[in-house]
Design goal:
- The structure is a single chain.
- By secondary structure, the chain is an alpha+beta fold.
- The protein has a single domain, classed as Gcn5-related N-acetyltransferase (GNAT) (Aminopeptidase, 3-Layer(aba) Sandwich).
- A hairpin with a 5-residue loop joins β7 and β8.
- α3 runs antiparallel to α5.
- About 35% of the residues are buried.
- It holds the Pfam family Acetyltransf_3.
- This is GNAT family N-acetyltransferase.
- It comes from Arthrobacter hankyongi.
Length: about 210
């Protein structure tokens, strides 16, 4: 079983880098692209909250419950990192099983529908199943976030259930949380589907 530790992952469209304070300004520019913090069904940090959000994620990393990444475009001309477009994480880490949830993800609006989101999910899933040896990977989202639910289902994840009145949103309202998962024996089929979609850019998710 591999250690769940910071790592850089390079895909077809994106590079996932371990989150650091050096990414702050790029993340602020990315979140302003579409004013994502104004979407009521998400928990995306506002520009002035970005430094605190980086601190929060890095503190959870220190505690062993989160592995946060900054999502950057892959610069095709150099093969290196390009513009910062968002954040994603392994969260609610159970290192003993091991099991992770992929979540706390957002991408700049201009990156939606470009293949960057499925590419980052592919990288995280591949690392979880093929390197970390996870028997299962989990996804969670707001019941009312239909776009997210549909995108998770298109990954090939199966819905496990709904946790009703599970947590509170930023405005204090109770949220029902939909839980999805992919199991290790399902990964080969999910991987093939993702590779096909990435190859053909047949993706309409965020």
């Amino acid at each position: 079983m591999a250690t769940i530790a910071p790592v850089s992952l390079t895909g077809k469209y994106v590079i996932l880098e371990p989150l650091s304070h050096a990414h702050h300004d790029g993340l602020v520019d990315a979140v302003r692209d579409g004013e994502l913090w104004k979407l009521w069904y998400t928990s995306v940090p506002a520009p002035e909250e970005m430094r605190d959000e980086i601190d929060r994620r890095l503190a959870l990393q220190e505690q062993g419950s989160m592995l946060p990444f900054t999502t950057r475009l892959l610069d095709r001309s150099t093969g290196g990192p390009g513009a910062v477009i968002g954040m994603t994480t392994y969260m609610n880490i159970d290192a003993q099983t091991p099991r992770v949830e992929i979540g706390s993800t957002w991408n700049a609006q201009s990156a939606h529908g470009t293949g960057t989101n499925p590419d980052s999910k592919f990288l995280l899933l591949r690392h979880a199943f093929e390197v970390l040896g996870c028997p299962a990977v989990e996804f969670r989202t707001h019941w009312l976030n239909l776009q997210s639910r549909e995108a998770i289902a298109r990954l090939g994840a199966k819905q496990d259930g709904v946790l009703r009145s599970h947590s509170r949103t930023r405005d204090g309202a109770l949220r029902d949380t939909v839980v999805f998962s992919i199991l290790d024996h399902e990964w080969p089929a999910v991987r093939s589907g993702l590779e096909y979609r990435l190859q053909n850019r047949g993706w309409n998710g965020p």
